[in-house]
Structures are given as C-alpha cells and as structure tokens.
Amino acid sequence: MFGEIDPLRRRAAIDEIFHEDAVFHDPNRGIYRGRDEIDRIAGVIKAAHPDGTDFIIARDGKIAAVYLFFDELPS
After folding, report:
1. Count of CB atoms within 10 A of residue 45's CB?
2. What range defines the domain where residue 52 resides?
3. What is the mean pLDDT of the chain?
4. Confidence of residue 73 (pLDDT cuts 50, 70, 90)
5. According to the model, what pLDDT value does residue 56 have?
6. How many Å apart are CA 28 and CA 40, to the nearest integer?
7. Rounded to the nearest 10 degrees, what angle do helices 35-48 and 7-17 cross at?
8. Whether the Cβ atoms of residue 74 and residue 49 lie closer than 8 Å to each other
9. What share of the chain is helix, strand, coil (3-state, %, to 5)?
C-alpha cells in the first residue's frame, strides 16, 4: 500500500486491508488513526521516502496497526 503511487488504487487498498480504526505509527511524525489519516500520510511518505521497512499487526485478516522504519539497510 505504501508503494502504490496511484492515489485511487492506494485508497482502494486501504479500504480493503485496513480496519476502520487502524493505527499507523510513524517514527518521525507520530500516530495516525483511521483510514482517512492513513491514506493522507501514506501519500506524503511515498513522495518523501520511496523506500522504507514496515511491520504490521493483523486482526481478523485486516491490518490493525502499522509501524514504519526509515533506517538504511546494510550494504
């Protein structure tokens, strides 16, 4: 979802795989709650950081929380 550059496809993915009350944890900007905020910040992050590592917590087959890290990977 964070790799999707098309805003309509990104939103469709968010609606499909995230709970309505999902939480996204950004180490630099804070915590975002709900699909609308996750959609908004995902676009901002994609534009600024084309790469990043993310970890998810799933509940009942949908994403309940996301943690994103911008650490550089070792060579």
Report:
1. 19
2. 7-69
3. 85
4. low
5. 86
6. 15
7. 130
8. no
9. 35, 35, 30
Tokens of 67: 């943690």
Alpha-carbon distance 24 to 36, whole Å?
A: 11
How wide is the angle at C-alpha 52 spanned by C-alphas 23 and 72, nearest 5°?
A: 130
- 1 in a domain, yes or no? no
Report residue 44 as tokens. Answer: 């901002």
> Are the beta carbons of 55 and 26 closer than 8 angstroms?
no
Write out pLDDT tens, residues 4-37.
889 999 999 999 999 999 998 887 788 999 999 9
Q: How many Å apart are CA 3 and CA 45, to the nearest integer?
A: 10
Mean pLDDT of the 43-60 span: 82
Q: 75 lies in a domain? A: no
CATH code, domain with 59 = 3.10.450.50
Q: What is the pLDDT of residue 34?
A: 96
